Amino acid sequence: MTMTKVNIGIIGTGFIAEILAPEIQSSSKARLAAVSSRTLAKAEDFVASYPGAVAVEGADRLIARDDVDAVYIATPTSAKEDVASRALAAGKHVLIEKPLHSSESFKRLSALALKKGLVLMDATHFVHHPRTSAMRQHLAALIGAPRSLHTMFYFPFSDRENIRFDPSDEPMGAVGDMAWYSMRAVVEYLAPDSFEDIKVFAERDPQSGAVIRATGVLKFDAGKTATFDVGYTAGAAVMDLTVAGTSGILTQDDFVLDWKSGFGFDNPDIPTGFIHRSGMATRKDFAFIETPGEKSQHGLMVDSFADLIRNDDDAARETWLSATAKTQGFLDAIWRQIQARG
Ligand SMILES: NC(=O)c1ccc[n+]([C@@H]2O[C@H](COP(=O)([O-])OP(=O)(O)OC[C@H]3O[C@@H](n4cnc5c(N)ncnc54)[C@H](OP(=O)(O)O)[C@@H]3O)[C@@H](O)[C@H]2O)c1
To answer: pLDDT digits over 270-300, tens only?
Structure first.
């Protein structure tokens, strides 16, 4: 049986919308139906590269369209809940950019999605790469029980005109932008049951007041701990992850955007996978476990969003909701610490 494609409308015409649009357009499971901007001319410019996609002024007009089954919300965080709740109320499935404003905000949205029988999924790319499920699947056999996880995620970035430097658009700054991935890695690989303690240090941009760097440690149940170090200030792209277990460790040096085809990178000669180390092994003994993906992780995300809609599998839908809620919960804990320290 061939299933019909999911008609997706994009809300917002910024940086990440430009990255996702070609993946939606080229997916065998989805189609780019429409794009909305607060400024019609911007939507018209955007759709010029996508034959068949309609330009619309304003999110409400896009949400009201009968030829839109689902929306991808690519706006700043400050606008996300308002747009998402209107889309869900109108019966549209939602793929929403990370981070959310807060756990409370996400709870309101997920309650609405469940009530309306709609899909709500956050737009974290790396969880859709087969590497993530392979790591999870082999983790216990390779390293025993996971005990600590360390992530370091930096991008050189200093454009003060960008939303990341505007706390009214992105209240959590680099924490919402970058530590989101650290916390998602905690959810995926450390998988704690409950959160117990936290300590965080942050650096703010003196001009904008935006958080541009943060370092911290979280303690969970069963002695599990996570350390993270994220920001825009290291002068280099760093995406390091280490999971230490009771009998070995697993590492990645591209855990957020794989060097091979994560957006911003295009290196067909750098295989995607993870490294396993145990005992007194030196670098020449490390085992690289390759986990190829059939296409880019953001392309795979579009396909899994479409599958979630088309398969009508409540348990699968709730698995994604639960991962988002946990990620946002840990992010909120980091943010509360930063706010408490001023
Ligand atoms: N998943 C990922 O890998 C990834 C990567 C990058 C960014 N992101 C997230 O995606 C979000 C957007 O980031 P970006 O880099 O794409 O930002 P951006 O380039 O500034 O784009 C945001 C777009 O949203 C619209 N917009 C701006 N202010 C708005 C408002 N107040 N109300 C409604 N719409 C508004 C604008 O489009 P119009 O002018 O056309 O309305 C703007 O172009 C951020 O929260 C960021 O963390 C995720």
So the answer is: 999 999 999 999 999 999 999 999 999 999 9
Cβ neighbourhood burial of 143 (10 Å; 0-12, 13-18, 19+): buried
CA of 298 to the centre of ligand 1 (A): 16
CA distance 99 to 169: 12
Contact 248, 142 (CB under 8 A): yes
Per-residue pLDDT averaged across 216-231, rounded?
97
Residue whose C-alpha is closest to residue 36's, from 92, 89, 102: 92
Domain boundaries 6-123, CATH class? alpha beta
Residue 326: name the closest of 228, 198, 233, 191 by CA. Answer: 191
What ranges do the domains of the chain cover? 6-123, 126-297+330-341
What pLDDT is recorded for position 341?
81
Pocket of ligand 1, candidates 97, 155, 157, 175: which has the most ligand atoms within 8 Å of its Cβ, to mutate? 97
Q: What is the pLDDT of residue 1?
A: 52
Angle at 272 between CA 266 and CA 276, to 5 degrees: 150
CA 51 to chain centre: 28
CA of 274 to the centre of ligand 1 (A): 31
- Domain spanning 126-297+330-341: CATH superfamily: Dihydrodipicolinate Reductase; domain 2 (3.30.360.10)
- 96-146 pLDDT, tens digit per residue, is 999 999 999 999 999 999 999 999 999 999 999 999 999 999 999 999 999
Give the tens place of pLDDT for each residue, 241-257. Answer: 999 999 999 999 999 99
Please report how many Cα atoms fall inside a 13 Å half-sphere around the Cα of residue 311, on the Cβ side.
12
Q: How far from the centroid of its chain's Cα atoms is residue 108's Cα?
A: 19
Ligand 1 lining (C-beta closer than 6 Å): 12-17, 37-39, 42, 74-79, 97-98, 123, 125, 163, 170, 177
Minimal-distance CA residue to ligand 1 atom 30: 79
